[in-house]
Automatic annotation (TrEMBL):
Pfam families linked: D-ser_dehydrat
UniProt domain D-serine dehydratase-like: residue ranges: 313-411
Species of origin: Brachybacterium phenoliresistens
Protein's name according to its UniProt entry: Amino acid deaminase
SUPFAM superfamilies given in the database record: PLP-binding barrel
Gene Ontology molecular function, alphabetical: lyase activity
Length: 428
């Protein structure tokens, strides 16, 4: 598989919202016409280019300041063009979740990839080994003895060994060995296998909390301390199989706790295991797009952060289809177009049409969504009319971008009629 030249890609009905009559054009020809959002049909989701650039730079600076690496989770965008921008800004590589995403990373020429999951599919195992043979640095996870045995059984005897991280889990969490002792047993099995190399410890803290309450933060902190203790123990027992080892956690919600709890772990490991060099690696992915919902409320780099925080780079523009009741308006975007799993869309601004002056939608809220409709509760005296354009803020980019194959990138979400500067190809 190779990724097609986007400039040569012909657009068509498979790409939603593009202008009527553009199916004979390539992406480059379409962009050269000078597109604006007013040229597209609603509903349309768009990403703001300058906002994404600012978010990339902000987290790169944060990681550099704290001496940690970043392997952003590519599943958020599944857009190799954005992955490359993140790597150019200093990211170690990218993280993916499954063999299909691993194949996209291979086709995109990504040199370092972490597969943040257990490899159990035989084809996926073969792919990871083939990429390793090609010189790509591939890290995958294991969390029990059965996974270790399956990996060893399916790896080709004449191919290179596969680098793995032992995953520590927690009760009520997701995958991962339940407890330090269980994880140590898995690590020993990896160390004993001639086809595997133990490169460190991995985990995912985001499954343990969903807010920044004292209880949630305490659960995440305790888990991260266990991850650290596991790595130090494995180092002291000589079970790690490389001089450069990895300790990785950190989604887009609690990466500040990861930085805090893992601070100084390299020195602690070196004190017990000599020449080992430790890389603490975050895997935050949603930060590049941010949102107007879940991540806005939970990120450590919020708007109040000194020097400015992450900014939402994802919005949808929809039109009013119907106003059948005084306090109800139906919008032309629904679950097939917009995310809804981490909160309904946030109505922000309205205007009679693109290019006209917009106003804040005071007192409006989304109350429900169908496949192709959003229900908007509005004050009875609000002048919102059929055909008006509404800008929505969205929550959770991971389940918004996956609904779009070619996403307009715009210059300014606050403009009356934003200019489309690029079309971003996704590979969900």
């Amino acid at each position: 598989m190779t990724l097609e030249n986007l400039d040569a890609l012909r657009v068509g009905p498979a790409q939603k919202s593009l202008p009527e009559g553009s199916s004979e054009l390539t992406v480059r020809e379409l962009l050269d016409r000078g597109l604006h959002l007013s040229d597209l049909t609603t509903p349309v989701l768009a990403l703001t280019g300058p906002a994404m650039e600012a978010n990339i730079a902000l987290l790169a600076q944060y990681c550099a300041r704290h001496g940690v690496a970043l392997a952003p989770h590519g599943k958020t965008t599944m857009a190799p063009d954005l992955w490359r921008q993140q790597i150019e800004a200093g990211a170690w590589g990218v993280t993916v979740a499954n063999p299909a995403q691993l194949a996209v990373a291979r086709a995109a020429g990504i040199a370092r990839v972490q597969l943040a999951n257990c490899l159990v599919d035989p084809h996926g195992i073969a792919l990871a080994q083939a990429m390793t043979a090609e010189g790509v640095e591939v890290l995958s996870w294991v969390d029990d003895l059965a996974a270790v045995a399956r990996l060893a059984r399916h790896l080709a005897a004449d191919g290179p060994a596969l680098d793995v991280l032992v995953e520590l889990g927690a009760p009520g969490g997701r995958t991962g060995a339940r407890g330090i002792d269980a994880a140590r047993e898995v690590a020993a099995a990896v160390h004993a296998s001639p086809r595997l190399r133990l490169r460190g410890v991995a985990g995912y803290e985001g499954a343990l909390a969903h807010d920044r309450s004292a209880e949630g933060l305490a659960a995440v902190t305790a888990y991260l301390e266990d991850m650290r203790a596991l790595l130090v123990r494995l180092a002291a027992e000589g079970l790690l199989d490389a001089e450069e080892i990895v300790l990785t956690a950190g989604g887009s919600a609690y990466f500040d706790l990861v930085v805090d709890r893992f601070a100084g772990v390299g020195e602690e490991v070196a004190a017990s295991a000599g020449e080992l060099r430790t890389t603490v690696m975050l895997r935050s992915g949603a930060y590049i797009v941010h949102d107007d919902g879940f991540y806005r409320g939970i990120t450590p780099l919020g708007a109040a952060t000194e020097g400015g925080g992450l900014v939402p780079a994802m919005h949808a523009w929809v039109r009013v289809l119907s106003r059948p009741e005084p306090t109800l308006a139906l919008l032309d975007g629904g679950k097939r177009d917009l995310s809804f799993d981490e909160g309904l869309p946030e109505p922000q601004r309205a205007m009679p049409g693109f290019g006209a002056a917009s106003r804040r939608l005071e007192g409006a809220r989304a109350t429900a969504m169908n496949d192709q409709h959003t229900f908007l509760e509005i004050p009875a005296d609000d002048p919102l009319a059929v055909g008006d354009v509404v800008r929505l803020g969205l929550s959770h980019p991971c389940t918004a971008l996956d609904k779009w194959r070619l996403i307009p990138v715009i210059d300014d979400a606050e403009a009356a009629d934003p200019a489309v500067t690029a079309l971003l190809r996704t590979y969900f």
